[in-house]
Specification:
Length: 289
């Protein structure tokens, strides 16, 4: 079963389509250090057998939206995902037809960056907390533990190094209802259900502002202390932050979060590796607020 989605009649699915295309493209560019242009002509509703039919014996990246436990994933040809992981690692090795333990770890890191890049823009678009992450990397079969009746699928194609790469991003169809429910809650609480303006509208006259310096901050966590404890602080004291060691840290502008990621060391300096970032239109809106 395969049914093409009419995006003009489904605003939320239309937003999912555009956000996915933009964010996956940006993430792949960062991972491969190459210019990436993703092509995708349509979004489909499919059953699980139709979804996996062209990827039996290839690589499936399982993922889940942790708040709703909605299933999602990525389907790659093994040679393609092996080649991308080699690019991420800067390895000159030939791509592999079968993934070994080391390659699986690299694929998990690469695809987790792709999946998690969607969290912030999906959350902003739906006014609903979205937290998606990769759970496993396996060889695809006709039965991989996906139990939904219908899945939203988008096939993307791009070229890197003169070679074509295709992959499928898919979600349990329940994701649409979950995201729309966030807009309904926003409306019922007196907020606005207006869809975020597209980047072209939001960036009107933006060219006039592009050379302005904007301070950004990396926020590793916060803490609340009694005044007497603050006055008693001295060298060697440790202040415990309300942030777990496994949690991502925030990149902020005007105290508004625009991205999440991790601290890295680059040539002896602290740096910030982005793993999730809101859409360009949403970044512009936050600068205006």
């Amino acid at each position: 079963m395969k049914e093409t989605v009419d995006l003009s009649t489904s605003p939320m699915l239309g937003s999912i389509f555009e956000i996915s295309k933009e964010m996956l493209s940006s993430s792949l560019e960062a991972i491969t250090s190459s210019e990436i242009k993703l092509d995708s002509s349509e979004m489909n509703i499919v059953d699980i057998d139709t979804l996996f039919s062209s990827y039996i014996g290839e690589t499936i990246i399982k993922a889940v939206e942790t708040n709703s436990e909605i299933q999602l994933g990525l389907l790659f040809k093994t040679l393609d995902i092996s080649r991308l992981s080699n690019l991420m690692l800067g390895s000159g090795e030939d791509p592999k037809e079968e993934l070994d333990e080391d390659t699986i770890d690299a694929v998990r890191e690469l695809t987790n960056q792709l999946v998690m890049s969607l969290n912030v823009p999906f959350s902003s678009e739906s006014k609903q907390q979205v937290s998606m992450k990769v759970t496993d990397v396996v060889v695809s079969s006709s039965d991989d533990g996906y139990d939904g009746e219908k899945y939203i699928s988008m096939e993307f194609v791009f070229s890197i190094g003169g070679k074509p790469v295709s992959f499928i991003l898919f979600f349990d169809a329940e994701l649409e209802s979950y995201l729309v429910s966030g807009l309904k809650k926003e409306t019922s609480s007196g907020g606005s259900s207006e869809i975020t303006p597209n980047a072209q509208q939001a960036s009107l006259n933006l060219d006039l502002l592009l050379d302005i310096d904007i301070p950004i901050s990396v926020r590793m966590g916060t803490a609340k202390l009694f005044l007497k404890d603050i006055l008693g602080l001295g060298p060697g004291n440790i202040v415990e932050l309300e942030q777990g060691v496994d949690e991502q840290i925030d990149l902020t502008i005007n105290d508004k979060v625009i991205a999440r990621g991790e601290v890295v060391i680059v040539d002896g300096y602290f740096g910030f590796r982005i793993k999730e970032i809101i859409s360009r239109a949403e970044r512009i809106r936050k600068l205006k607020d």
